[in-house]
Design a protein that fits this description.
mainly alpha
Length: 65
Amino acid sequence: MAKTNPLTFIQQVRAEVAKVVWPTRREVLLTTVMVFIMAALTAVFFSLVDILIRGGLQMVLSIFG
């Protein structure tokens, strides 16, 4: 691997950072809200699955226990 001069490296990094398209405040807000909504939906889903599994196991254990 070729060694790069530190000054050249910094110039290359700055050139690459200049190419980055940064999201707008609105895009960040919308994606953040969507993440919270998806996390809430996932929590509700797994809570319901947990309740169903627990109820099924209690029913099976009451029959055989």
